[in-house]
Write a structure and sequence with these properties.
The structure is a homodimer. Chain A is mainly α and about 750 residues long. Chain A contains 21 helices and two strands. In chain A, a hairpin with a 5-residue loop joins β1 and β2. The longest helix of chain A is centred in the C-terminal third of the chain and has 48 residues. Chain A is globular. The N and C termini of chain A lie far apart (about 60 Å). Chains A and B meet through α3, α6, α7, α10 and α11 of A and α3, α6, α7, α10 and α11 of B.
Chain lengths: ~750, ~750
């Protein structure tokens, strides 16, 4: 396939064509959505207010961000013009292009979302399937805008840099990083600003509406209702769009940069572009798989969306294999890409498991509400911490596998693979807020109950896909960040220019970084388990106290003594029983890693686990345990003292007539403070302090086992031949000649 | 001072003597406390129940842990006996000694605490000063047990290993690590088990007592009251004791190990022992500074405790300078030790700032309770996240400064310095639970109101010192973990045996690890700011909605339309305004580090900030942003769905008569679930998703600036001479000859 691998032009053109097809599809979907019935006058009026508010916000936001974009652009131009700065002034062009493309994707996605919401409500009054089609079509507009504009920008810039400006690919790739930076600059403000907007409006509306004015959610009497609906769009649609725009562009850029900096062959440079192009085209095909029949259950609705995602994944997988063979990149690169693709699907699955009401974790969370506000908050936090386990371990496995199969480049293409189906996964995700808005509009316009039932079904489905989508967004962001980091270290430390392995080899060692992830997990899992243990043990105490009040005559009247000892015994039993698991995990993980390091010296295990893993676990657990411990201790202490502050009569407020009142025990603020204190108690007294030990435990276990590890490395000749096992190479595909720099150790004086 | 530096024996003997003095002081304080009046019959009965429960728990806990200790011991012996394993079988001996010493310190501290509580209550009925003295004396018993047993164990083992077994100091130091491991094995279970116990009893007692039985806190009618009081002792006294035992021992062992492995002179090996010995003796002197006069205010009470800590710190600082000069270690090591000492005091101060009701953060937290349970929970979490800033930055500065002044050894002695005043800081900390218990006993025994007022004052003071103590415990744990990590990497990668710099030089680079800390901070600070922004913006919405209801005629009756646009405008304004700070921090920190890297090439700045810092920021933010993002998204999603699950009528419970009931909207569990959802909303829709961008932002900024950094490094000849700037050396004190191994880069195939 020489025409593809002679230079990057053909592949860039293919990418551009795929993007244009994607844009055309987005346009056709947009036109179809807009051609739908927009409902009665009341509905159009409400929808009009939402449209106006959303667009006003985006305009204001973009105006604010534009200042930053211009400042950064000027800075980049100046840096690029300074002689010997090493930066290309064209980075500034890529930056502005990225910012504009990301902004356009967000704006376009929101434009259609605020018009699809009312049409979804109207369509739902006709049939469930039609409602689903309208909302989902709006999602596909957004998704295709994101992937197409990202790939289009990269394709055009790449051709411009290499063909018009005749930059070498390494410089072109480096300037291309500006495109990603532009996208991120928009994204950070879109996510933060949109996030604040959406929750401020929501929380504010709820607070005053439910507690003070006594009007239902989404009541048209609440002045903040429209702001609440606007929030759904600016946060979840525009924000999510620019977030994934950046991941998508970032992963492709990282892969190209790594290929270019490491002097890999042209095939490695064009491969990410072609995988992305393929993904766009397949995403379009797969979006036609999404439909359902009337009266579908929640499972059937979910399955209809899943069909699209799974179908696209299967087709893309076949395409990746074909592409890899066609470009002669070898199975290493193919498998690395596939591992990312599969990892993305798995992350989505586990996110659903932890957050959907159809599975145990959320059901148990609901049951814990019987224990009161504090208990469900604690349990939810614990659940959140525990849920880090699956996605982080999936990223760990994908990283280890991809780098084993394809080196650093493998990590980057794994990220590309994970994001290759974005055209359809983002569509299912962007569908959520449209369905949510549709429900709100149906409520406010007082449509019939059957319509409301349908929009409820669509909305509930949207919550599930939104959660899955969030998980996918986080996982792919982490993979992209890893890929970008690899590209950065390669770039700073010389890449092909001056091979400097000391720094790069160590930090680019996947065992180290994955070890850090595992280490970072430990404090989260450990805290989660200890907080859950408190809840369980407290339940046993409650049951026993109730039993005594029922069975001991005179106790309730204060005439008989309770049986304190049984309570002490129960506390003792359950504390001892429940400390075992977290304790063993803390001691066990470093020991397990050490054992794997030693037994893995001569075999495949050593490719994935080594002394670098143990160092990584050490560093990772140190970092997150430190942060979490401080946060938990201080939050707990502050809640406790805030409660005491109120009890001391220091908190003053105003009553309805504007007179000053002092809040005391049993006042509403005091009750709220008690909830805070209940959350804070296991924070500051169970999980937080235990983390101190974890901090040191991992380090001390490592230190104790150090001679063992050192010796096993020495026996295998690793130490004497200086670390060949830790040398990671980006030259998986086309090895460069060996280099032998000398390292000097100069003691500082 | 040849007699001190000829061999380690003299210093070990001095350490042993200081420990024995400390133990004797602890014994005299114990006798004094026990000689105090234990109050009336009712009080003795209550105190007896607490004593029995606490001792039963510790016995059960130790029995459970003993199994683990024996298993680990056998494993260590086997590993030590395997030929060529590199481990000394004496590690097992050190391990068991450490476990026993840590257990004894915890047991002894608790023994006196459960006897001092009732005597404090009785003494408080005489005078405030007397109550303070009794409670504080009990704290000094505990504190001196911890430091003395730790130093005694290290001193005796060290003499035994070097003089009786004639091990070389490197092997002796390596075996000594087992002592720390033994301490940690106890600590992990003491902290987790004690933490679960204390909060299970507390939460359980509160839940059933306040909400179901309607009896006040600490009521003798509640069967769980005694368990609650037992919990204070097993969690805060025994757990805290074994925690700090481990930090204290770990820091000394790490310093000795680094000195021994790096072939530093004997002075460097004996210095940590002597600093610790000095700290014990000064702590005893300083504890006499703690007293107060009758009718003292809260500030005066606090100051009386502070006098002890600050006095001890000042004296130890003088002693450290004298010792360093005496041993001829140079100002580098002295300053490193002092930086740790000062850092510890500062961490305590900032912890107090963030958690005490005397300062703004907690007061504002209390005010936020007016917004309801969800709001105060969110704000408390945000406050906790924000409060990571000070301690982490202090540890960053101490690490950078100490390693600049004294290399890796400097980091270890900074940890030793921070913990050198433990004899007094732990005493003020262990005082808290005793005062707390005294209050409970006074309440249960129905002592007079004036007594209760005094115990309340003592208790409230105890809350403050407990928070400060927790901050100190976390900070010193992090420093100790860093020191242990440095010792581990030095040990695994050869130390003086085979100088292998590739791995060790990079990972022991303080710029890298401190960069990671700064990076890890970013997601916490960023999330905190965005969550606080939601609160602020929501308040504005609430005010506007109220204003409209007051001023628009007919709105409340549903006859007039509200002014939606103003609400939309307010949301827009405040979201735009509040997105600036978090956004700028996210973009600004990596840019700032990059700028410092470039300008710091030829000057002092380069000693503390470099491209390694930027890589560290990248890795650190990647790790914590990934974890936090998953946790927040999933917890938010699960709370949301748990609420919906209840609303759907899936949650069933039993009413008082045991009949099944279905919980719906407005039921108590539903209200609790709404609180969870309110906390989850900004988690999953504001902070969580914004973290995705942060993940990539830091990486992409770094990548964009990569050519700049690369070029500035190249111009300065750093890249061509391969990294002399990143070479960290442990040979600060006695440089070893230069070594020049060659590094081979072997591309994997």
């Amino acid at each position: 396939m020489d025409f593809l691998t002679d230079n990057v032009t053909v592949a860039s053109i293919i990418a551009i064509i795929a993007s244009v097809v994607g844009l055309a599809f987005a346009w056709s979907q947009r036109s179809w959505v807009l051609s739908q019935n927009a409902g009665n006058e009341k509905m159009t009026k409400i929808a009009g207010a939402i449209q106006k508010g959303a667009q006003a916000f985006l305009r204001r936001e973009y105006r604010a961000v534009a200042v930053l974009v211009v400042v950064v652009m000027i800075a980049l131009i100046i840096l690029g013009l300074i002689p010997d700065s090493g930066m290309s002034p064209w980075t500034a062009l890529a930056f502005v292009t990225g910012a504009i493309a990301s902004g356009a994707a967000g704006y376009g996605g929101m434009y259609i979302a605020v018009r699809a919401n009312v049409r979804t409500a109207q369509a739902a009054s006709e049939s469930l399937n039609k409602g689903l089609r309208v909302a989902f079509s709006s999602g596909t507009v957004m998704a295709n805008l994101v992937v197409s504009l990202a790939l289009l920008g990269i394709g055009i810039l790449f051709i411009f840099f290499t063909n018009v400006l005749n930059l070498d690919t390494a410089t072109a790739a480096s300037a291309l990083a500006g495109f990603g930076f532009g996208g991120t600059s928009i994204a950070i403000f879109a996510r933060v600003g949109g996030g604040i907007y959406t929750k401020a409006a929501d929380v504010g509306a709820d607070l005053v509406g439910k507690t003070e004015l006594n009007i239902p959610e989404d009541s048209p009497q609440n002045p903040a209702t429209i702001a609440d609906n606007v929030g759904d769009n600016v946060g979840d649609v525009a924000g999510m769009g620019s977030d994934l725009f950046e991941s998508y562009a970032g992963s492709i850029i990282a892969a190209i940069t790594l290929a270019a900096l490491s002097n890999m062959n042209i095939a490695a440079e064009v491969y990410p572009l072609l995988v992305a192009a393929l993904g766009i085209l397949i995403g379009i095909v797969a979006s036609f798989l999404v439909q359902t029949k009337e009266g579908a259950t929640q499972e059937q609705l979910l399955w209809s969306l899943r069909k699209g995602v799974y179908g696209a994944s299967a087709m893309v997988a076949v395409g990746i294999v074909a592409l890899g063979l066609l470009l002669d990149l070898g199975w290493g690169v193919i498998l690395a890409t596939l591992s990312g693709l599969i990892g993305g699907v798995l992350i989505g699955y586990f996110t659903e498991y932890f957050t959907s009401g159809s599975y145990k974790p959320t059901q148990q969370l609901a049951s814990s509400a019987e224990g009161g506000a504090g208990i469900i908050v604690i349990r939810g936090l614990a659940l959140g911490m525990l849920s880090t386990l699956a996605p982080v371990m999936i990223v760990v496995f994908v990283t280890l596998f991809a780098s084993w199969a394809g080196g650093l480049y493998g990590i980057a293409v794994a990220a590309v693979g994970m994001l290759s189906t974005l055209g359809i996964t983002l569509a299912t995700d962007a569908y959520g807020p449209v369905a949510d808005n549709a429900g709100g509009i149906a409520e406010m316009s007082e449509l019939g109950e059957s319509v409301r039932d349908r929009t409820d079904a669509l909305d509930s489905l949207g919550n599930t896909t939104a959660a899955t989508g969030k998980g996918f967004a986080i996982g792919s962001a982490a993979m992209t960040a890893l890929a970008l980091m690899a590209a950065f270290i390669t770039a700073v430390k010389g890449g092909n220019v001056i091979p400097d392995t000391t720094f790069a080899a160590v930090l680019l060692e996947p065992k180290l970084i994955t070890g850090m992830f595992v280490g970072a997990l430990l404090p989260f899992v450990f805290s989660a388990l200890s907080m859950l243990a408190v809840g369980k043990a407290a339940q046993e105490i409650v049951a026993e106290v109730k039993r005594q009040w029922k069975t001991i005559p005179g106790l309730a009247e204060g005439k008989a003594d309770p049986d304190y000892e049984t309570c002490v015994g129960i506390s003792t039993d359950s504390a001892i029983k429940q400390m075992i698991l977290p304790g063993l995990i803390a001691v066990g993980v470093p020991v397990l890693v050490a054992i794997l390091t030693i037994v893995g010296q001569d075999n495949i295990i050593g490719e994935f686990v080594g002394s670098e893993t143990l160092v990584g676990v050490l560093i990772g657990s140190l970092i997150t345990a430190f942060m979490l411990a401080i946060m938990m201790s201080n939050a707990g202490g502050a809640w406790d003292n805030a409660k005491k502050y109120i009890e001391g009569g220091y908190l003053k407020g105003k009553d309805e007539n504007g007179n000053e009142i002092v809040y005391r025990k049993k006042s509403e603020p005091h009750k709220a403070a008690v909830v805070g204190d209940t959350v804070g108690d296991p924070f500051k007294d169970t999980a937080g302090p235990s983390l101190n030990i974890l901090l040191k435990l991992v380090a001390i276990v490592a230190l104790v086992l150090a001679p063992l590890i050192y010796n096993s490395l020495e026996l295998d000749g690793v130490n004497s031949s200086t670390n060949t096992d830790t040398t990671i190479t980006t030259e998986q595909v086309t090895p460069t000649p060996e280099v032998t720099p000398s390292v000097e150790v100069t003691p500082e004086s």
